[in-house]
Amino acid sequence: xxxxxxxxxxxxxxxxxxxxxxxxxxxxxxxxxxxxxxxxxxxxxxxxxxxxxxxxxxxxxxxxxxxxxxxxxxxxxxxxxxxxxxxxxxxxxxxxxxxxxxxxxxxxxxxxxxxxxxxxxxxxxxxxxxxxxxxxxxxxxxxxxxxxxxxxxxxxxxxxxxxxxxxxxxxxxxxxxxxxxxxxxxxxxxxxxxxxxxxxxxxxxxxxxxxxxxxxxxxxxxxxxxxxxxxxxxxxxxxxxxxxxxxxxxxxxxxxxxxxxxxxxxxxxxxxxxxxxxxxxxxxxxxxxxxxxxxxxxxxx
Length: 301
Hints:
The chain is an alpha+beta fold. It has one domain: Endonuclease/exonuclease/phosphatase (Deoxyribonuclease I, Chain A). It has helices at 7-20, 36-42, 64-78, 101-109, 193-208, 230-235; strands spanning 45-51, 82-86, 113-116, 130-133, 137-146, 166-174, 180-187, 217-222, 241-242, 263-267, 271-278, 294-300. It is globular, with a radius of gyration of 18 Å.
């Protein structure tokens, strides 16, 4: 989901969830299903997508002081080659903040990564970075586009008001094979179906018009839409195939699994998914976020 203005919606949903919680059968702990040895023999690389939940430095109520340790433990255990974060924002009003407290924490506690989809905040939004292992990939290119009539203008407003929403992307090159891959990192509007629908069409257009059409592409993130929704049907075309994910990806920060995944992974035909898991567990007794990490491994075709 998205931003400070979503709290009222979340609270209403949470109240409803608590009323029926006793009737639900909760998923307790889903983890990537292959051993390190088995996964390594099948997959060429893996990626985690995670809406990390913004924080407000003064009077933060998101539990960051506790969940930051869970986040570091989760990333260390999952050990992905690529990490796509959404909502990695130090929320200080205005168009942008020059600080990214969560990113600073990750970079200081989880080693081996470089940061892509990142720049000077007045020119390049810094709240949807894509991290990659420095010994696996090099960064060849990066960019962003906002879901608006002016997609290349930083912080441009969406078609139907609300907070700016956007996508970032990177072009990575495998240091050993020199195989390249595009990674698009998405966060669609949580409240406006019209914005999500038009945003999905823009994503499709940008993926189709990438510089090298034959280079594989992965699209991940928080789509605020179910797998069978109109939004996902726009994206799941002849070029992009969705990875099937089981279970909820948004859990209200309480481990409450009311509906299917709103976080998704799509890929072009040059990639084969080996494993895809919504990792529904705590680390160090805490949830890293109100979303679960989504772990996917791929093999080059």
